[in-house]
Write a structure and sequence with these properties.
The complex is a heterodimer. By secondary structure, chain A is mainly alpha-helical. Chain A contains 13 helices and 2 strands, in the order αββαααααααααααα. Chain B folds into 2 domains: 164 residues, D-Maltodextrin-Binding Protein, domain 2, CATH 3.40.190.10; 224 residues, Periplasmic binding protein-like II (D-Maltodextrin-Binding Protein, domain 2), CATH 3.40.190.10. In chain B, helix 10 packs antiparallel against helix 19. Classes of the chains: A mainly alpha, B alpha/beta. Chain A: Keywords: Cell membrane, Membrane, Transmembrane, Transmembrane helix, Transport.
Chain lengths: 332, 440
């Protein structure tokens, strides 16, 4: 903390490399005031950019969204705000579509996060071996992450098309190419999960890889001296060492899946995509929010959905924290 | 932390001031996001660029009208900015109207939205009543874009008088008459007759073909031919008991039940593909739809399509648009002149000739290009006279602010009945629930 930082004396220079020129008392007082000002104020200036940007683009929108959520506001009349209190929230909670969206968000979240992290762990383990052209493989594995959501979703839309889609064409050789992927509840959720897995596995792989390389190699040597197989080494040395990293990726993936928007919006596209399918079969919370605000023009409702999402995220974070504490305690 | 503890009052104040200054700087940096487009100001020679924002197909590109306007007014260049999907376009347009930035000089408005804009956003538009003479338009069209105070926010471009497009060759194979007068004679009783014709068709239908593309299209046809649609005159939503909706829904569920439809949501890829494969015998056909059919069916079906009058004796209008001038545009006066020119009879006739969008300006009905127009693709159907007769007879339907959204929602639920086998009652309930959110 600040106690270790050498502070300049507030009463004028005490030597230094060059001897100061003699100054008039008035001038000296002015300088000392400047010194003091520099001393007290500059730290604020140094940290100000973050807080200013956070205030302008994080805190203010957050609070203002909360304010809007308590009003009836229409896209067609932004200047007319009508106070409705908690009305918007109670409408949402009674809306079956909201709960459909919550369910979809969690289903897609689980079926994308779990395989994604497992695959990432496996790939990281493979990349951790001594490989020829290891940089090349690491780059390759990160490429999907570098593509934009829109282009990935549009390409996968072609893969999952009902007629003439790549996947149905392949399945056709096995006599099962009739699936209308976007129409079914599970099939559409799986399709979206596939896009997410494709995009994010590489990212998580690299995080795991970095963590694995930080595991001291003498642990592995000791394990192999004790006769542990590769698999046992992976289970009993690598995984425990990676525990904090795994928790981190779980938190990040959970937040990511709560915000899932581009993939469902573009999988089918058009007005169907913007409402999460003809029967809301793949409507996520973000799509629900978007639909309320931008298709239907009810901004107050939309803001209420945004806050409901925040509360859900905080709940999940709390659960994560509890689980993490439990894991740490039981490990100790 | 020691530092904060020793801060004197004055230093704290200075710190606050410094923070304020930084905030102001940050706001200046981020706040002035005004898109500095090149069309803002006239250059030294008085050259200006007018932008026209529209969606789908307005036909100006096809008729090369913007180039022509530049020839007539060498100092004005017209640039088009066309969105593919109207709902996407409209959402953005509302935001632009709200913030007053990013607006084009001329904006297109779809008929399903015009009421909402007239009701809530009339102040954001320039009054066109001085620029154009609204008595030139078919009466009901002009009324749609006029506020109670007589302010005109939009000049009519096209309208969509209804007809039926049908495949002569498929009708022949199914043992139905192929001549357009004979087909019309079988439909005089209204849309019920259309379904009866469908049942006849189904008995001997060529393999793999369907009588109609989508029951939701027929539903729109039925609702359009009723003056009572989704709203009452006093502005109350009446979609639950409106005569038009009830009749349309009943006929649509009947068509689904009797399997007369291929069940493809219009304008989506499978629908376009089906036109190319030629599996649909009829399509409910507002004027602008004919152009779509010709485009997606392609040369192989040229001359095999034909057009006949809409069922029954009630004329119907489906769709059509307006051109408006936002009051906060950069060149309101010049934009008004452009709108006037684009919606004048000669130009509407040119659009009709090039893209098949039917004029809403009565003056155009008298022009040769419209009056004697025949569509070669549709076996030389005399569409000019078919549509013009109908346009004059269309009743002034009562519009409402959310017409576009409500229509889409009913259409979506009808598609659910077709594609997913949703039971009519469940689909009806789902539609009402979704619409209560729209009007909410």
């Amino acid at each position: 903390m600040a106690t270790t930082t050498p502070t300049r004396s507030a009463h004028g220079p005490q030597g230094g490399r060059r001897a100061p020129k003699p100054m008039t008392p008035g001038r000296q007082a002015w300088r000392s005031r400047l010194w003091r000002f520099d001393d007290k104020a500059s730290p604020y200036a140094y940290i100000a950019p973050f807080f200013l940007v956070f205030g302008a683009f994080g805190l203010y929108p957050l609070i203002y969204t909360g304010w809007i959520a308590l009003h009836k506001v229409e896209m067609t009349g932004l200047d007319q705000m009508e106070w409705v209190g908690w009305g918007n929230f109670s409408t949402i909670l009674q809306d079956s579509e909201f709960w459909t969206a919550v369910t979809n968000t969690f289903v897609i979240g689980v079926i994308s996060t779990v395989p994604q992290l497992m695959i990432a762990l496996g790939l990281a383990h493979l990349l951790n071996y001594k490989l020829r052209a290891s940089t090349f493989w690491r780059t390759v594995i990160l490429t999907p992450y570098a593509t934009s959501v829109a282009s990935a979703a549009l390409v996968f839309a072609l893969v999952f098309r009902a007629d003439g889609g790549l996947l149905n064409w392949v399945l056709g050789f096995f006599g099962a190419g009739e699936t209308n992927w976007v129409n079914g509840h599970w099939t559409s959720n799986i399709a979206i999960a596939v896009i997410v897995i494709w995009r994010w596995t590489g990212y998580n792989t690299l995080i795991y890889l970095a963590a694995m390389q930080a595991v001291p190699s003498d642990l592995y040597e000791a394990a192999s001296l004790d006769g542990a197989s590769r698999w046992q080494q992976f289970r009993n040395v690598t995984i425990p060492a990676l525990r904090p990293t795994i928790l981190f990726t779980i938190v990040i993936s959970t937040i990511g899946s709560m915000q899932l928007f581009g993939e469902p919006l573009l999988l089918e596209g058009g007005i169907n995509g913007a409402t999460g399918g003809t029967e809301h079969q793949y409507e996520t919370l973000s799509i629900y929010l978007y639909n309320y605000g931008w298709n239907l023009g009810h901004l107050g409702m939309s803001a209420a959905v945004a806050w409901a999402m925040l509360v859900l995220l905080l709940l999940i974070a709390a659960i994560n924290w509890l689980v993490g504490r439990f894991v740490r305690k039981s490990a100790a | 932390m020691r530092i904060t503890r020793t801060v004197a009052g004055r230093s704290r104040r200075t710190a606050v001031m410094a923070t304020t200054g930084l905030t102001a700087a940050a706001l200046l940096l981020t706040g002035c996001g005004d898109s500095g487009s090149d069309s803002d100001e006239a250059d030294a020679d008085g050259n200006i660029t007018l932008t026209v924002a529209d969606f789908g197909q307005f036909g100006y590109k096809e008729a090369k009208l913007f180039e022509k306007y530049h020839e007539l007014h060498p100092n004005i260049t017209v640039k088009a900015n066309t969105a593919a999907e109207e709902p996407v376009y409209y959402t953005k347009f509302l935001q632009q109207l709200n913030t007053g930035s990013g607006l084009a000089d001329v904006h297109g408005i779809e008929v399903g939205r015009v009421k909402e804009l007239v009701d809530t956003k009339a102040d954001a538009f320039a009054d066109l009543s001085k620029v154009v003479d609204s008595s030139q338009w078919v009466n009901w069209k002009a009324l749609q874009a006029t506020t109670d105070e007589g302010k005109v926010i939009g000049a009519g471009t096209d309208i969509g008088p209804m007809s039926i497009c049908y495949r002569r060759d498929l009708f022949e194979k199914a043992g139905l008459p192929t001549d357009r007068e004979e087909v019309a004679a079988k439909l005089t009783g209204g849309w019920e007759d259309y379904l009866k014709l469908g049942e006849e068709y189904k008995k001997k239908a060529p393999k793999g073909t369907f009588f109609m593309d989508s029951a939701s299209a027929m539903y729109n046809g039925v609702v359009s031919s009723n003056s009572e649609q989704y709203y009452a005159k006093n502005g109350d939503p009446i979609y639950k008991e409106s005569a038009g909706v009830k009749a349309g829904w009943k006929l649509a569920s009947e068509a689904v039940d009797k399997k007369l439809t291929q069940g493809l949501a219009q304008f989506q890829d499978p629908w376009k593909a089906a036109l190319r494969q030629g599996t649909m015998a009829t399509v409910a056909c507002p004027a602008w739809m004919a152009a779509q059919i010709a485009e997606y069916s392609g040369d192989q079906y040229k001359g095999k399509w034909d057009i006949t009058r809409a069922p029954g004796d009630t004329a119907a209008n489906w769709g059509g648009s307006f051109l408006s001038v936002p009051a906060k545009g950069k060149h309101v006066k010049e934009a008004g002149e452009l709108v006037k020119w684009l919606t004048a009879p000669e130009q509407q006739a040119a659009v009709f000739k090039a893209a098949g969008l039917f004029p809403s300006n009565k003056g155009a009905f008298q022009l040769e290009d419209v009056k004697t127009a025949k569509l070669e693709y549709f076996n030389n159907a005399p569409i000019g006279s078919i549509y013009a007769d109908e346009a004059n007879a269309i009743p002034a339907a009562v519009l409402g602010p959310k017409d576009g959204n409500i229509k889409d929602e009913f259409g979506k639920q009808i598609n659910n009945m077709e594609q997913r086998g949703t039971k009519p009652d469940a689909a009806w309930d789902a539609a009402l629930e979704a619409i209560s959110k729209i009007t909410g």
